[in-house]
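Chapter summary example: a protein plus WTA.
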Amino acid sequence: MAEKEVVETSEAQIAVHWAEEEYFHPSKEFIAQANMTDPDVIDRFSLDNFPNCFKEYADILDWYEYWHTTLDTSDAPCWKWFVGGKINACYNCVDRHLPKYKNKTAIHFVPEPLEEGYQHITYQELYVRVNEFAAVLKDVCGLKAGDRVTLHMPMIPELPITMLACARLGVIHSQVFGGFSGRACADRIVDSGSNVLITADAYYRSGTLIDHKQNADIAVDLAAKDGQKVDKVLIWQRYPGKYSAETPMVDGRDYFANDLVKDKYGARVEPERMPAEAPLFLMYTSGTTGKPKGCQHSTGGFLAYTAGTSKYVQDIHPEDVYWCMADIGWITGHSYIVYGPLALAASTVIFEGVPTYPDAGRAWRIAQDLDVNIFHTAPTAIRALRKIGPDEPKKYNYSFKHMTTVGEPIEPAVWRWYYDEVGKGKAAIVDTWWQTETGGFLCSTLPGLNPMKPGSAGPGVPGIHPIIYDDAGEILPQGAGKAGNICIQNPWPGAFQTIWGDRDRYVETYYARYCKDPKSKDWRDWPYLTGDAAVEAPDGYFRILGRIDDVINVSGHRLGTKEIESASLVVEEVAEAAVVPVNHEIKGKVPDLYIALKPGIAATEALEQKINDAVCEQIGKIAKPRKVWIVTDMPKTRSGKIMRRVLGAISNKLDVGDVMTLANPEIVEEIKKMNDESGI
Ligand code: WTA
């Protein structure tokens, strides 16, 4: 553990030396219309008013039955919120809006090919399509409340329709990011115990119609080998009535979802009255071991938290057009493309493609055409757009009142371009720090109340009380000027409930480190370990510095170094693998993969390629290493541990420090030379 921390902490220390920036204040126009301008909110959500303060968020929703216990801690640290309450997430995102908003667009779908134009799905149409598909899930697939179903879908409107149809029935959806491989999908099918897979035949990315159905065949075969049989595969056609994939349909297993829906014309399915603490979905994320963790999110708590934060941090009003450019396959999309905005009856934009295709103006044309006024993206996209088209935004006539950045620290210079050029100096910006596990935002400014500070996320959002501990468990006070491990002192409704099927790992990973008493049923004894390093400025704003564990943040997406290492170890020639994060101008970080081969095997370019392919096959292209370095030996401690810190320094062209205590210091020079000569 200590060695791994050194890598990140040294990077973290660099970030600590970013200068403190000046405040930027939201405009009078923004404040005049903001959902939250009441400074008392901070008191209302203070620890003294915990946990009842969260009633304010739960009251944004419609409940069939009110809860009797706001927070049940009897199974600490598996917290249960709003116990006794009955609610349906789909009802709250769709049905309840019909009396007022049935004609309003719920989803603006933007296909990647320009000639396909836009699709506008009203709340009424969403209601009809969700009901008809829920009938398919129920009658054709036999799914019922509590069953799990795996989705491996791209950014098409059928994805939120499928999620909402599941939610209507109380079926737990587990959406796997569309860019993940069939293998990665199989692992998640097996872990969640799904016997239905819902996918699509094809989707566009950078001008190419990608055959996606082939991943389903791989996933189903591999899952079967691991003991999980998938009985039915439902395939949404990108062009209904036309099959756009090469791989044949499997008789008796594969069905076109859009055909099945036809038989359900006019069907209406009563929403299930789910207990507040029933799981709504699983979202798998990377951790310190090779096996991804299924974060289990609740129905009532999650929806209350995403609705509350969407309203007050995203400042979403029903009349807003809101565009979050993330993929629904990640938590950002679940919370802040689908559930939060739809719970508030906003119009949410779903974009199939990449924002830099076919040119650097695409994103801003979409904003202009749809009159988007709230925009949400990640630093990696902002950096890419700034690089290829720094002057593009001013060519288009759109007007953002609010913008979000999420997923990685944002450099102050990039923040300023976002503010000046994309936001045209008018939009309030929130830098939201949170995680797959946390369901919604942890730190951010409240846009109508707090000034912004480039490079800082801000204080804890209402009801979130962060605390920084050092490695010895001492609290680092506000303004200490030192980085430590940022934790959250209290539970909150959006937090995941457990790791699916692995409570021990949940407790161990997130609560063991600073737990004051493992037998305690008092939430005060269970600080939540986020796994990030942070510093708290004298003004109480938190600056997030990066992970303290084996997680790499590539383009704002989480990858486990161990996951990539184990993927490369399937290549039989490989003896040892070590992954280190390398700083990257656009993506934030990218993985470098160091490989030592089994004795007697020669390093070749073909082998490098084979290892590279293995990683893409096992995980997906997103995990593709920047470079596969085949080395004659790994730098090791005398006890035989691979010194990733040294490899990380070489890859980042930093000083490797003192290596004389290594078992094989000479290897360091050899690897450095190889790195220098490669010219990258
Ligand atoms: C990082 C994404 C700095 C952090 C919502 C966290 C951030 C991990 C920020 C979670 C931010 C997220 N500033 N770093 N505003 N937001 N991170 O689970 O390291 O994909 O632990 O959730 O991203 O990534 P995840």
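Key point: Residues 285, 330-332, 406-409, 431-436, 457, 530-532, 544, 546-547, 553, 558 surround WTA (CB under 6 Å).
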